[in-house]
Structures are given as C-alpha cells and as structure tokens.
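S., here's the first fold you wanted:
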Amino acid sequence: MLGVRTASVADITQIMKLIWRGAGEGALLKRGREELSSIARKGNATVAVDGAKVVGVAVLDFYSARMSELRSLYVLPGYRGKGVGKMLVEAVAARAEELGVEELMTITLKGNKGWFIRRRFNEGPHGFKVALFRKL
C-alpha cells in the first residue's frame, strides 16, 4: 500500500539512490549522505513508500518562517501518475506550516511547471528553470 511518512536516517541509502537517479535524468542536484542525514534528523525529509520500499522523496529546506523550499522531489517512474508526487508535496507543505512557514517555493524544469501550478504554486521568474511559490 502506498503512503508517505517522515524519513528516518535508516532511509538515507534508498533516498540517495532516488536523488542520484533523478540527477542522472537531469531533474535534480546530487545530495550527499551527510546533508541528507542532517535533513532527516530534523524531520524535514518525506518519503513515499510501498511497503518497505522507498518509491519517492521530497525535502523541505527550511530557510526562515518567511520562505522555505520544496526540493529534491522525485518519484520512481513506475509510481508516477498515481498521486505519489501530490502526496509528497502536501506532506512537505504540512511540515512547512507546522514550522510557521508563510511561503513554500520550488525550482523546477519548465516542463514540470504546470504540475506544480496545479498544486497551488504560482510562477516566478522566467528562464530555463522557474521558481514557483505557494502561499501557506
């Protein structure tokens, strides 16, 4: 059964595999074990799971209560189109709200812009990548 939960340090190896796979596809920046472990210890990484298998990830990069970033969102290809990405975005947004964040932003490839807009983000600057913002 598909679900989302806060990631633990025990998930880091699976999370790294997802993020590095996304980096290989040109969609994400690679992240190291130490950085991801620190984020997980703070409760700011969310994973989508199918049983014990991590099938998706999203990270909240907490900048301040004014604005923080949703980043490193990746879902395995076989799980796309099943609402997994939406569950991850909503879980990260809920975590941001718990922390008192006013606005959540993300930077994505242009081809993904519409997907984020359907999840209540608004377009920012133009260019190869776009910043999308969500008022909380």
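And the second, which I think is the more interesting of the pair:
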Amino acid sequence: MRYTYRIPGEDEAVEIDIAPLDDPEGGYRVTVRDRVFDLPARSLRRAAFLRQAGEITVQVDGREYRLYDARQRRRAPASAPGDLHAPMAGRIIRVLAKAGDSVRAGDALLILEAMKMEQQITAPHDGIVASLLCEEGDQVTAGQELVVLEEVKNEK
C-alpha cells in the first residue's frame, strides 16, 4: 500500500510503500524513495500504530510519524486553539472540567503532557461539556477526540 509522509512544518511530501514481508514470522518491507527497510515483526514490539480514516499514526522510540493514504490525498487538519482533539500523543495530567459544566470560550478543559511540555485543551466556544472521553492518567494518541462540547445558543 502506498502512503505519503508529510514533513511537519513543510510542504514536502515523501511517498512510502508498505508491503508484508514474505516471512513466516511476519513484518513489513518499507520503501522510502530509493531506500528499502525490512522490519521483522519482533522489531515492531516497541512501536504503536493507529489507523484511522486513511491515516496511520506510528509512534516509535518517543517520536511520532503520520502517514496519509496517497490515493485519498487527504491531510488531517492542523490542531488549533479550541480544538478538542489531542494535538499529539501524550498523557492527560489534569482534567479541569466535568460533564455538565458550563464553560466559556478559552476556558481550559484539561491539560495534556507530551514530550515534557504541557498543553491546555481549551473550549472553542461557550457551551456545556456533554462528555469527557478521557480521564487523568490516560495515554492518548494524536487526533484522538478528548471532549464533546455542546454549543450554547444565546437567546436575544
């Protein structure tokens, strides 16, 4: 299967082919440009994979890589203030809101720790916290939805 790796912060994209190895123990052959890597199954025990809507997130040795299905030419939207999805893989270290809470735009809902940095996940608009999809101590993956926030319509 062919994927595209987009280099963070750049427009450059690298085509990657991934095919199963013809090996009874399993594994994959990964071709990046003119380089070929054979990854036996035993080497993949230190890696985590998440496949979601034409995108594969690979976490290995403390780094994260996102591969996009080249046939779809689709790219996940960048995380922005008020995005209720994890901007990167990490651990939830503090939950500041609970289901049913009324919040205002910009209020911190929870804190994610990733790569020794803390990042607040904030409300994009006034609303009611419908549900929290994580709790303190949870490990989350990049792009994982963390909070469901119902918008409050102001009556005039």
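Why I say that: The CA atoms of residues 91 and 113 lie 5 Å apart. Confidence is low (pLDDT under 50) at residues 73-81.

Talk tomorrow,
H.
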